[in-house]
Specification:
It contains three helices and 14 strands. It is flat, with a radius of gyration of 25 Å. It has helices spanning 2-15, 112-121, 130-133, and strands at residues 31-36, 41-43, 46-48, 53-54, 64-72, 79-85, 88-91, 101-102, 124-125, 144-152, 155-162, 165-168, 173-176, 179-185. The protein has a four-stranded antiparallel beta sheet with strand order 4-5-11-10, with no helix packed on it. It has a three-stranded antiparallel beta sheet with strand order 1-14-6, with no helix packed on it. Strands 7-13-12 form a three-stranded antiparallel beta sheet, with no helix packed on it. The longest helix is centred in the first third of the chain and has 14 residues, at 2-15. With 186 residues, it is an alpha+beta fold.
């Protein structure tokens, strides 16, 4: 009987008995980011913010975008929330066009080499996406875009992009968000 009792105690110790909240049970604090838009230039050539990249989605308005990577725990779900304080409406002096892209006629089956040659020799021109430029709505619909996740050197990373400006191509209005606070919760 004593052997069975010792074996049972050993099994309980090996498996473990929950003893209350441990370090692994604590929810980590959200990752907080604050994006303050510095001085910007808005003129007939477009909208520019020093140090920001330009949103280069084909056919989408060439808007400034702030981007970073956030490290996530190795496993688990994540969510992103944001707040914008006091957005301001601005008239655009000229349409905010997409970045120019090659105007290539792919009217026949081509080899990859032929496609590359045509793209290299093609003239560049803005090609607005009719789904974006025909809608009476601000683009992008969300100020903050997150994902996809990436793994680098054993670390799980999340791409986070913040758009301090949104553009309505029908009304030619800009919505400027000078302060955007982003929270990534895991």
């Amino acid at each position: 009987m004593r052997t069975v009792c010792c074996w049972l105690v050993s099994l309980i110790v090996l498996v473990g008995i929950p003893t209350g909240a441990g370090a692994d049970d604590v929810d980590p604090a959200p990752i907080a980011l604050r994006v303050s838009t510095p001085a910007y230039t808005l003129d007939e050539q477009g909208l520019r913010v020093p140090g920001y990249a330009v949103h280069d989605a084909p056919g989408a308005p060439a808007l400034p975008v702030w981007a970073t990577w956030v490290e996530l725990p190795p496993t688990g779900e994540w969510s992103v929330a944001y707040d914008s304080k006091e957005p301001r409406r601005l008239p655009a002096p000229a349409p905010i066009l997409p970045l120019p892209s090659p105007q290539v006629a792919l009217d026949a089956p081509l080899t990859p080499e032929e496609i590359a040659e045509r793209v290299a020799a093609a003239p560049l021109a803005p090609q607005p996406d009719p789904a974006i430029y025909g809608a009476d709505a601000f683009y992008p619909a969300s100020l903050v875009q997150a994902g996809p996740e990436q793994w680098m050197r054993g670390r799980r990373l999340l791409a986070v992009r913040v758009f301090p400006f949104q553009y309505n191509p029908v009304t030619r209005e800009l919505l400027h968000h000078p302060e955007v606070e982003v929270r990534v919760t895991t």
